[in-house]
User: Fold these one by one.
Assistant:
Number 1:
Amino acid sequence: MSEQVIKKELWDAIPKESKDKEILSRPSMTYWQDAWRRLKKNTLSMIGLAFIIFMVLTAIIGPYVIEHDYSTQQLTLANIPPRIDIYKVDDATYFYMHSEYKLFQVTADGELLDKIKETQNNMAERNRIYNIGGKEVVLDYKYGAMKAEDNPEGIKYKLLIDGEEAKVADRVQNKSYLFGTDALGRDMLSRVIYGARISLLIAFIATVVNFFIGVLYGGISGYFGGQVDNIMMRIVDIINVIPLLLYVILLSVIIGSGLKSIIIALGSVYWVGMARIVRGQVLSLKEQEYVLSARTLGASSMRIMIRHLIPNAMGPIIVSMTMMIPSAIFTEAFLSFIGLGVNAPLASWGTLANDALGGLRSYPYQLFYPSLAISLTMLAFNFLGDGLRDALDPRLRK
Amino acid sequence: MVVTLLVIITITFVMMHAIPGGPFTREKQLPDAVLAALNAKYHLDDPLWKQYVDYVKGVLSFNLGPSFQRAGVTVNQLIKEGFPATLKIGLTSVLVIIVVGIPLGIVSALKQNKWQDGLVMFIATLGVTIPSFVMATGIIYIFSAKFNVLPSNGLTSWKHMIGPVIALSGFSLSFVARLTRSSMLEVLQQDYIRTARAKGLSNNKVIYKHALKNALIPVVTYLGPMIATLLTGSFVIEKVFAIPGMGKHFVESVGNRDYTVLMGITIFYALFLIVMVLLVDILYSFIDPRIKMED
Amino acid sequence: MTDKLLVVKDLKTSFFTHVGEVQAVRGVSFDLSVGEALGIVGESGSGKSVTSMSLMKLLQYPGKIKEGQVLFEGIDLVGKTEREMRKVRGNDIAMIFQDPMTSLNPVYTIGNQIIEAILEHQNVTKQQARQKAIKMLELVGIPSPESRLDNYPHEFSGGMRQRAMIAIALSCEPKLLIADEPTTALDVTIQAQILELMKDLKEKINTSIILITHDLGVVADLCSRIIVMYGGLIMEEGTANQIFYEPKHPYTIGLLKSIPKLHKKDKERLIPIDGTPPDLVLPPTGCPFYARCDFAMKICQEQQPPYFSAGPGHRSMCWRMHEDAPANERFSKVFNKGESHV
């Protein structure tokens, strides 16, 4: 037992009310405010959201801003990559040699001027002669056909400017066509931007159509319950035996290809997933309502409860819609790959990718940009969807 | 199960016959006499209900009819021709997914938030978002065109399998890894793991005996949908890698509107899936004793 | 000095989380003799469960034993390695938990889970282990044990499951059984059965028991001694009689007041204790119960009281027990008159 002397005042009693009781103060937020706050904290989701906004803006405004049009063909300028090797003739004159052995005049910083017509084309000796900037340029391509022992370095061609062997002066960014051109000489950049329009449009509209059908189907099933619900869900189960993608393919075969057809095909199939979720939410909502009526709350309280319940129910539906969009982009690209995509001259990312397949070895950039666009967009939606799922989960409310 | 199959046959039949103009409509119209002869040959002028009954009878006796676009070839033949290749790649993919995906998920869970977890999850996230055809074309470009270590078409050696299997299994493998990881993490929080530790069991026993079996339950549930994913994935993979499998035949029939082939392969796929899902259900009941097998 | 089975000296356990160090146990000392049943009572957050987990060193990251000693049969467990502890767990010290449904692995049979424990610690054949398991099920009162051995947890009822858990825990004849809220998840009638069973087994096997609960009524029958915990510290310790009939701490009194009594003739309101538990990241410097105490004084806020003796084996951490503490009408009535609370 301690021997310390305890001061007299310390024995004064303290009334309970004056003591600091823990005040649990937390600014009360609505469900949506809290969800948005949580979403903001998720860096990946915010990056995804930013990217999506960027992509949508690009899709809307892009075609008006870009100098080239997505469908103008210029066969002479076909298959030019985004980064080109240029040769110097003199300070004012440069040229670029295409992999198909065509020469183009360019500026020092990569702007394409025009195709240079050869003065002589000696097919037998396998060379071509040009007059560029006053000098004689010879393109000698007999090396490609030589045997290995005669061609130890394995080169395919030689360029001679006024008799001297020319070396690549620089590799510059193609300023006329930032993403290069495709097989028909169309600007890849504007095609990718235009493709954004088409792919995103298809994805959004299809998702909205699926949403409405799904809400209707699932809502009716859940609301009526009982036999109606049983039968409706059995139908969904049977439909689900075959992968939904197969239905889309078959439908596309029937309806034909084209923008409207794809949207119809996509919108007619994926609603089953949404229907299930909506039904589940309606069922749980019903349960809450019964509890409410059992407690015989006044009508106004009921309205307040529904203001809390319905936002809760919307959560999974919103997440589902967010995840449907990348799914639709994927499906559309998939269809294009099988040849069921939109028709030319319209271009979606999927058709761009499909078109690029043939020239994959020589012109990989034609596949790269649309694939990158698809992948990044799907990644962005996935991040956003993941974040939304966490943010809208009422159990994680802090 | 039979009901399901019947419904699917009906759906496919209705869809195929909903196509305006019939299977022999082309841009260049065939002369009427030829058209009539073809229609008669393939019984397309019979009343619809009769065609339906005939078709169902045919399916039930495993006769899926002739190909309309390739004279003399039956759908059965095409399936027999293409199935082995598709199966080879499909089975290998399933094996890879299980043998690689599940352990990756386990490692990730055990090393939660450490660098191994971060690395695996990063790759897995890419795997679920990058579409299979992007992966396929990417593999062809990098490994075939640029570095020339892998062949890019056909299926004549084991080397030919690498590209297609990776591209086909990419998505599902990543999904399984993520699923295993989250399932494992959840299981490790459970009370019965605490009990197991309180009994003095070694860490290995706790993880590999007590936790793992429970963690695999949701993964087994995913196997059914996974097979469906692999199946549809095979269309694009077989086209891009030029593999002579069923998927390629299917894609070709889409291209030349060969309706019997489309229908036939669809029904074959449906049957295959029904059987697979049944097998998975049986497997599931072995793992989780709380589930009783009905029917 | 009598040989104590378990001596806990100044145990301090904290959870080192990203919000700070949560001091769950702040200096707990007690001991336990062979064959004795001790009850640890307190509300959620009082530190009772963390204390028991610390005894077996079952704490998961980020929890750690900061200081103190846990002397089991004279040897300090705190210093033992994980490997050494595994030999102790399930063998010398066993533990059963609150919810038997979630505490049993659903994918293995009960038999499998009992036999596993036996085979882990004892050098017997599988056959012998199986026989032992059957005997254990019999011991805890499960009918047709032979066939029940091959049942899965979900095929048992709630009470049976808890019995099965006890069977698993006792299968290696541990010297100490720690029961963490074993009856909280069960129906009242089943509760009584399980407590009877534990009492019975204590006599038969002479196992010491630590029973942890928030319900004072549960410890009344089974435990000879009771510890009352709050805010990570022991508020009062004494025999069952002392705690129930001569409580010497405001918190204990509050707990007793909140138990409904059947025998009272006049209707009496249940008096809950106002307020909420203290924040353990910034624990109060004074008495942890200060903020909710009806009898608080200035000194209670400033200094943590020492333990004052209230009789043989009876101590209380309360400044009101100091000889200089002023008398108070209400105090005398409650403290000294020894009103009957049972």
Number 2:
Amino acid sequence: MNAFLAIYRREIEGFIQTPPAYIFVAAFAALAGGLTFQGGGFFESSSADLTAFFALHPWLFVILAPALTMKSWAEELRQGTIETLLTLPVSVPFIALAKHCAAWTTIFFALLLTTPIWFTVNYLGAPDNAAIAASYGMSFLAAGAYLALGQACSAITGHQAAAFVAAVLIGLGFTAAGSPAITDAAARSLGPLAADFVAPFGFAARLEPAWRGVLDISAALYFLFFAAIALAITSLFASARRGG
Amino acid sequence: MRHKRQRNADRNMPRAAGSRTLQSDVKSYLRDGAKKSARKTDGSGETSMLLQATGLSKSFGARKAVRNVTLSIEAGETVALLGPNGAGKTTTLRMLAGFLEPDDGAVRALHYDMRRQRVKAQASVGYLPEGAPLYGEMTPWSYLNFIAEARGLTGAKGRAALMRAANQVGLGATIYQAIDTLSKGYKRRTALAAAILHDPPILLLDEPTDGLDPNQNVAIRALIRELAHDKAILISTHNLEDVETMCRRAIVIDNGHVVADGEPAEFAARTPSKKLGDFFRAITQHDSAA
């Protein structure tokens, strides 16, 4: 547990001392807020709800989460500090989990910074606060999945730019998978079974019930399971570095 | 009533703050495990092997970096690992430290198998990697604090261990300076402090004096000699002065093979000039020329 906390704290310090985390938090807060009020049709809808705001989250995570995690293993390899890390008396899954939790903490603060939007809609009208709280919770869990995907890409590629591109492309695929455009295309080209197969993987589609105030436990478990699988893949590839 | 062997083990124990578990591990190993893994050195006595490697081999693609390396180091022994560039020294050290997985063979640190009991084995090893990689944005203080916590040394115990290690390597006022701004010598001192922080019974040092000025060289050699009396220390080096001043045994590795294992003075005596350098050149000439 001490080793886990030590690595977690080191990662947090790393985020504090380098620009990407600040850029991530600022970009997330600015884009989520700006696009909701300017391009999201918030004022035109004449209703006090934050569906447009939460609908942006997966698309922002697609870009911003890989920016936060692309360094996680690639930089350890570049600096040679992976040798220090992998000779500490701590197992690789614990290292991956500590790195993941540190990045997730950063996302937590980014989401926290957007809460003035919540206060604003309460000032302007009477929103469904339970739906907003559920949406925040699901966004946080979805962010965990995007971060784990980003970390896996960093461990697999061992290169920051390659990790970023790979995580964005895979993230885009998972985000859009449940959208009508993708499921319709799958149904047309491969048949209805293909559409049924692809739809459950869609991150954005999995988030939708929460925007309506429905707490979808299966969606929450899906994001957690996705993150666990991605972290297991991270551990496998990081451990494989021992093979030379 | 305490037995004589127990008292000897106590006397040989690390003196400064360290992991209680690790200390008790070393104690019990020196007390009990030594008998099991003892070898006859001169036909007269038992010695406690803290580090043992058997038949280590490692390939990178088609290139065989290390071939069937077997070595063992006992408590109180400082051994040099000598060899020309690309001979397999760093790869051997990486396998001993548990960073690289050998293709064949096994490593035992204390009484733990590096493959099956990696976490416990690595707790007993202090490792200075080649090039002393560090997190540049941290200060030596925060880096050493990170290493201390990761090795289970927290609170006052951790701070005491950190200060002891920092003082031993002579970090001085640089301890609060960003690592990126430190000279190569101070970076190496920081990495060395991280290796000795938890007072491990086994130390693996890859080029510990590389990049140090002559005064720092003398200080670090004196520190390693001071640490040597109760530890198994393996030093990979090109510097023959390091070998002559610190090591009572040298292992020469060439093209992945161990080609000589003995006392540096004995090696030197085998040459007409009585110089270790000449012995080294003679035994590794083929690969150096290539």
